[in-house]
Automatic annotation (TrEMBL), chain A:
InterPro entries: GINS_A, GINS_bundle-like_dom_sf, GINS_Psf3, GINS_Psf3_sf, PSF3_N. Residues 11-63 form the DNA replication complex GINS protein PSF3 N-terminal domain. The keyword Transit peptide does not apply. This is DNA replication complex GINS protein PSF3. Belongs to the GINS3/PSF3 family. Keywords: DNA replication, Nucleus. The lineage of its organism: Eukaryota, Metazoa, Ecdysozoa, Arthropoda, Hexapoda. SUPFAM superfamilies: GINS helical bundle-like (SSF158573), PriA/YqbF domain (SSF160059). It is found in: Nucleus. It comes from the Eukaryota. The keyword Nucleus applies. Required for correct functioning of the GINS complex, a complex that plays an essential role in the initiation of DNA replication, and progression of DNA replication forks. GINS complex is a core component of CDC45-MCM-GINS (CMG) helicase, the molecular machine that unwinds template DNA during replication, and around which the replisome is built. Residues 77-173 form the GINS subunit domain. Component of the GINS complex. It comes from Nesidiocoris tenuis.
Automatic annotation (TrEMBL), chain B:
Residues 3-62 form the DNA replication complex GINS protein PSF2 N-terminal domain. Component of the GINS complex. The keyword Cell membrane does not apply. Its main location: nucleus. This is DNA replication complex GINS protein PSF2. It comes from Nesidiocoris tenuis.
Length: 201, 203
């Protein structure tokens, strides 16, 4: 199954977490009954002109209302775009935004005007960082490392996969022969058969 | 597929052995007949049979034709100087080398052969990685790579495919993202997503 799909479905934790990132939102009109969203608001009414940073999942249900404007999160704004375009390799994505790519994809859905810009930024960043990631993943002995800490969540997963393939190969080269194990599916089937057998008797 | 499975496939390749025993019976298998064996007369068998007999000191394994120092060094030079992948003498060169060139191997210069083959492997894998990166940067839609062996593909797969896939998933149109949590949260939200591709009604 593809990595991105696996990480982004309804029950996936990474998807829940990436839609938890915050998006700046401005209310141009006063909104009743939403005062709780703003800790500094008095009473139950959200004053006009309030700017808040709300989680993405909340913003999706608000952004199409009249009098509500959403802004780009800072990591997708021009300033950061310039930095990423200059040299994406040195940016600490982990600190900037843990789910840079997935959250970026989500943000592009609600900022229709910037959609293509954001997507281009994400792809360019991924491509620029890929070489470094490859080199690192192939030569990494242990995972705790300065470079690894700088990777976004999906990049970490990518490099973990690459490292495990590399480890697998070097283990094979060193040891005489490995043991071929049953495929996951066959094992699951065996378990199923044996459990149904005990159930029947 | 992982390394062990590819090694298993490599074991099906044939190799010449010189048996140290005589047995006129023929073993009939689906993949072909094995035997009869006559002491001192070369005989072609799959590598797994050769390995088993070797372990019991019942045969001597003869190196495959391509497993020759001069030839491999020439291949190494060729591989280094070429921008593309050059055809390998065997589809499982790495697997076969790993199987036949153990420390107590019958084959002469086993250690030097092993080193040369490892060098070829390193050159090829480095080349594969570099071209994968160029491909990703170039943004082409397809690329043709010839003469890669299974083990090399297996080694390259996680890096290249996952990265390409992530890149693709980032650029697919929004409709395909409908499985996302946020869009599936309620009916009105998925509706707002499907309308997101058309201009927004406010503003």
């Amino acid at each position: 199954m593809s990595l991105f799909r696996k990480r982004n479905h309804y029950f996936s934790l990474t998807d829940v977490l990436s839609s938890q990132e915050r998006v700046p939102i401005t209310f141009q009109v006063a909104v009743g009954y939403l005062g709780e969203l703003d800790a500094s608001a008095e009473g139950n009414i959200l004053a006009a002109g309030t700017t808040l940073e709300l989680p993405y999942w909340l913003v999706t249900s608000l952004y199409q209302e009249d009098g509500v404007g959403i802004d780009l999160p800072k990591q997708y704004k021009q300033a950061w775009r310039d930095i990423l375009a200059a040299d994406a390799k040195v940016v600490n994505l982990q600190r900037l935004c843990k789910y840079f790519y997935e959250f970026g994809k989500l943000v592009s859905l609600i900022r229709v005007r910037d959609h293509q810009d954001i997507i281009d930024l994400l792809i360019q960043t991924l491509v620029d960082r890929h070489r470094e990631l490859t080199n690192w993943a192939v030569h990494a002995i242990k995972q705790e490392n300065e470079f690894f800490e700088k990777l976004d969540d999906i990049e970490q997963e990518l490099s973990r996969r690459a490292t495990s393939a590399e480890l697998n190969l070097s283990n094979w080269l060193q040891s005489d022969c490995g043991q071929i194990r049953k495929a996951e599916m066959v094992q699951a089937h065996d378990r199923l058969v044996s459990s149904s057998r005990t159930f029947n008797t | 597929m992982n390394t062990e499975e590819i090694e298993f496939l490599a074991e099906q390749e044939e190799v010449t052995i010189i048996p140290k025993f005589t047995d006129s019976r023929v073993v009939h298998l689906i993949s072909g007949d094995i035997g009869p064996f006559r002491a001192g007369i070369p005989c072609v068998v799959p590598i797994w049979v050769a390995k088993t007999l070797r372990k019991k000191h019942k045969c001597k394994i003869v190196a495959p034709e391509w497993m020759e120092l001069d030839l491999l060094e020439q291949k190494l030079e060729e591989e280094k100087s070429s921008r593309f992948f050059t055809p390998m003498p065997s589809d499982h060169y790495m697997g076969i080398a790993h199987l036949l060139l153990s420390d107590d191997s019958d084959i002469e210069h086993a250690d030097r052969l092993r080193l040369t083959i490892k060098n070829i492997w390193d050159v090829r894998v480095a080349k594969a990685r570099a071209s994968a990166d160029t491909f990703l940067k170039g943004g082409g839609r397809h690329a043709g790579i010839d003469h890669l062996t299974q083990l090399e593909i297996c080694n390259l797969r996680p890096l290249l495919l996952d990265a390409l896939d992530t890149k693709h998933q980032l650029s697919v149109p929004m409709e395909n993202m409908s499985a996302l949590n946020t869009s599936a949260a309620s009916g009105s939200l998925s509706e707002s997503f499907s309308s997101a591709s058309t201009p927004r009604r406010s503003q």
